[in-house]
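Field log, afternoon session.

UNIT: design team B
ACTIVITY: writing a sequence onto a fixed backbone
BACKBONE:
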């Protein structure tokens, strides 16, 4: 396989000012953060993410029905521990004679875009897919979704177009010791990053309690 995401030695540069982006695996305890993240998307972003107009109630139902035992959800938190990016890796039902496949859906809040978060979520999902014996990673999006198609093309995904929709496929190589280590390292780094941000947030709050909260918080 000669695609960028399937290569063991894929470099994470130049994304996010050359820092590795801490991508965490989320669990059922994160439902509120996921809901709040998705509700912050405007109508157009929701259309791009879900392929159709998606009112708040439908998003709430989608979040309620997320099955963390079956699928994998990844997230990226900012310094305030707000979920600024998330990806849903949905495992498609297995069919005899067909490669095992998973569908990737992603969203990044507007203020956090163009810093490599979408790419980091795609890369992490590709590595996790390899480590869980997925052979094809699949993205369904609208042809008008230039940012997603750009991400897909950068990852050397094969893109097929039909009636205003685009399907992008990434053939994955089997897992290797390098992909296992890469995922474990990213998970540890994401846990450490989260713990540091959490400590920083708590100490900031303690100082504000002591000194009074400044009017302008930078
Ligand atoms: C698609 C999305 C996840 C990208 O997130 P992101 O964090 O900005 O992604 P990255 O920063 O890793 O990369 C974005 C790339 O797209 C490019 N891009 C952004 N808008 C673009 C456009 N209109 N046309 C072409 N390229 C575009 C950026 O320049 C960047 O390219 P570069 O890395 O070569 O500089 C984000 O735009 C989003 O949440 N959109 C709404 C939901 C959605 O469309 N989801 C995908 C369908 S499942």
């Amino acid at each position: 396989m000669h695609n960028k995401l399937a290569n063991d030695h894929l470099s994470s540069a130049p994304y996010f000012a050359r820092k590795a982006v801490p991508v965490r695996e989320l669990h059922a305890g994160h439902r509120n953060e996921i809901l709040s993240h998705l509700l912050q998307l405007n109508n157009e972003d929701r259309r791009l993410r879900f392929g159709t107009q998606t009112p708040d109630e439908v998003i709430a139902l989608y979040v309620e029905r997320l099955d963390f035992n079956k699928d994998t959800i990844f997230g990226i938190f900012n310094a305030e521990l707000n979920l600024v990016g998330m990806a849903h890796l949905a495992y498609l039902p297995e069919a005899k004679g067909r490669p095992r496949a998973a569908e990737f859906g992603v969203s990044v809040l507007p203020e956090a875009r163009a810093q490599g978060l979408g790419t980091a979520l795609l890369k992490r999902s590709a590595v996790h897919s390899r480590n869980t014996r997925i052979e094809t990673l699949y993205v369904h999006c609208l042809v008008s979704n230039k940012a997603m198609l750009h991400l897909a093309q950068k990852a050397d995904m094969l893109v097929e177009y039909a009636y205003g929709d685009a399907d992008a496929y990434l053939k994955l190589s089997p897992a290797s010791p390098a992909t296992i280590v890469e995922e474990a390292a990213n998970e540890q780094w994401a846990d450490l990053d989260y713990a540091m941000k959490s400590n920083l947030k708590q100490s900031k709050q303690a100082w504000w309690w002591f000194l009074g909260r400044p009017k302008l918080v930078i």
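LOG NOTE: The chain has one domain: 15-211.
NEXT ACTIVITY: expression trials, pending approval
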